[in-house]
Amino acid sequence: MKQRLQKQFPKNFFWGGALAASQVEGAATADGKGLTTADALPHGVFGKVEIPPQGDYLKKIAVDFYHRYPEDLSLFAEMKLKMLRISISWARIFPNGDDETPNEKGLAFYDDLIETLRRKGIEVMVTLEHFEFPLHLVTHYGGWKNPKLIDLYMRFVKLLFKRYQGKVKYWLTFNEINVTLEAPFNGVGINRSLDQIDQTEMYQAIHHQLVASALAVKAGHEIDSNFMIGNMVAYSPYYPLTPKPEDVLEAIQENRKTFFFTDVQARGTYPAYMQRYFKDNGINLKITKAEQQLLQENTVDFISFSYYMSYCASANKEGLEKIRGNVISAVANPYLKKSDWGWQIDPVGLRIALNTLYDRYQKPLFIVENGIGANDDLLEVAGQKTVQDDYRIAYHKAHLQQAWEAIQDGVDLRGYTAWTPLDIVSNGVAEMKKRYGFIYVDRNNDGTGTLKRYKKKSFYWYRDVIESNGSALFAEDQSAN
Ligand code: BG6
Known about the structure:
Structural class: alpha/beta
Largest sheet: 8 strands, parallel, barrel
Number of strands: 18
Oligomer: single chain
Distance between the termini: 11 Å
Strand order of the largest sheet: 1-2-3-4-5-7-13-16
Strand content: 5-15%
Bound molecules: 6-O-phosphono-beta-D-glucopyranose
């Protein structure tokens, strides 16, 4: 008789969800919170920078997680989440970023949020900076090009490490640190378009974040040797559009725009290909010997990344179809379908991404964002309002199946925090209409809506996947065996 193999994920796999403060909390100036760079992008990464932001904008209230988190956390527990990735808004704790003393009301919010998660048995992962820092640090210091931000970030980070020691084990230093190359204001607070930016200034700001990240790893390990501190990049692998050697080389160069960051954070040195890039482009950075040593001695414990899509690379710059992803615009892949927002869907690309990162670094990996932004219809089914989001289920299912394959390939994958457990304001276009959640939030692009929460079909599906430790993903294949 043929033995039926139960396909499962490793024991203690972190099935989770991920959120970002500026996209969920709202309460933009409540209880002493200062405005942030995210508030200064009221229309999203692709919109105009407004300092200060004018009029109403969706992130001001977002989905009111600041006031509604007890209800949301109960729903997450009902979904059986084992991990929640949150971010802590720097400006809730230090409203201007350079304040001498922290804002206790801001801390009280995160104290209770973290405590409630722990009571519900949900492991917390904290992103220390998720696409927002106090706006005052842009207007008075010029953003991350100023090395003073390193000390100010460390004041914030050390406070959190000490306060949440024994409660939070998993930390990420900067969200999608590589995205500055495409969206400099969003990443480092330099308000210039890519064709006008001073490259030395931008890479110096990036260097300051890389130094801050290594300092956070060092301080974290000194405070608690059990801490697991990771980096976080947006990783969309590039494939050569054709086997033409020039296209293959182009794909290598494009992939290096991400590997530059992971190489510094996981291997501890600036790679030779970046030295060449700096030389060829007249980029002169101030990097001290002490900083080099710091980077070398304080590499991350694990690598985390967001995965939404892959791209193609071609040496030919004319006449090719281009697609835009979260911030990058690149050559389209003729073999792939697109989401409602034009992002190409490539589950096998996730297996490729996992294998590539693991082969390169041999460090534990976390997928900390993966999901699909779609137009959802709230309907009444058997007297209950819900969304029949089979497209979202199909997306996550296909990606998780490929993550399972990567684990069979030998990749040390520790967790998957889906983007997102509930609908939130999009980062790129600052819309509510672009929905990612397993829970629907009644809020519309024009700001109307009751903010009530409704479980989508995907809510129950994800709960079943978690409860079966992944085997529900393969239910059909297994019953066919
Ligand atoms: C990532 C960010 O870039 O992608 C998130 O870390 C963001 O903050 C997510 O929300 C999805 O992008 P978008 O633009 O659809 O919100």
